Amino acid sequence: MKFTVDQIATMIQGAVEGDGTQHITGFDKIEEGKSGSISFLSNPKYESYLYDTEATAVIVAADLDLKSPVKSTLIRVKEPYVAFTILLQKYQEMTAKRETGIQVTAHVAGGINVGKDLFVGHLAFIDANSSIGNYTSIYNHVSIGKNVQIGDNCIIYPGVVIYNDTVIGNNVIIHANAVIGADGFGHAPQADGTYKAIPQLGNVVIEDDVSIGANATIDRATMGSTLIRKGVKLDNLVQIAHNVEIGANTAIAAQTGISGSTKIGENCLIGGQVGIAGHISIAPKTIITGQSGVTKSIKTPGQTMGGFPATNNVDNLKRSALIRQLPELFEKINKIK
């Protein structure tokens, strides 16, 4: 990478404040910035680093008021985090060299519909009657079952397992060792105390522009489909149970588990280690803070919920503050006794 600050500002539609002729050769966090690197500032907690960083350029908000002089050239934009992301994406596009072709140790069964410039890595397995779109990359040790449909420009990283009948749209990224389409957790209790597995006859449907983290699991539906709508982002180690529906552009952080037949609206943000009960619904634009437990439907859009059981987060914070005071209150009660 070697661009001038002016060239980078043009890429991200920013305004240069300082010497735009300086060359940028790499990226750094603002606290670790050095000569030749570019960084960004979006979180106010890191503003103090702006005045000391050695980074040649820093992307900042257009309305940021400087409290002290800075050594770096600034690129002012509307949203620094978004602008820096765009810059990283453009750099990746310019430097990435995508492989094509099917490796000799891969197995591709008969009856496969294959698009242009497909890549299939070593020891990958694609079963019969599946369809793979254009410019899709399937890396080493991926296992794809029968009747699977995968769209264009997808990336399936090593060790992913995709069960029969799964449907995957365009521009989907599935990270290593994720499992898509395993049986849902359906077991009917019997009179003798044992359990009998309920056949899981449905599938998983993943729409366009979805990202699925490493070791995430999405179970097939008992009947019908488990649905992951367009633009959903799932972190590592997320568990989605059978017949769940995740609305468009919802983001879910690591170690969250969603029980069967729950419907989550669009544009929700769900923190890490959240547990969500089955057969409930969550309204669009809901925010659920980390380690919360959701046991009932959330019907009003746009709320921030937290705690266990999850309630309006203002009430949750008040409750947490009172709990922290319990030792002192207990001591006062003992004195009164």
From TrEMBL:
SUPFAM superfamilies: Trimeric LpxA-like enzymes. The active site is at 242 (proton acceptor). It comes from the Bacteria. Gene3D superfamilies: Hexapeptide repeat proteins (2.160.10.10), MurE/MurF, N-terminal domain (3.40.1390.10). NCBIfam families: lipid_A_lpxD, PRK00892.1. Belongs to the transferase hexapeptide repeat family. LpxD subfamily. PANTHER family: UDP-3-O-ACYLGLUCOSAMINE N-ACYLTRANSFERASE (PTHR43378), UDP-3-O-ACYLGLUCOSAMINE N-ACYLTRANSFERASE 1, MITOCHONDRIAL-RELATED (PTHR43378:SF2). This is UDP-3-O-acylglucosamine N-acyltransferase.
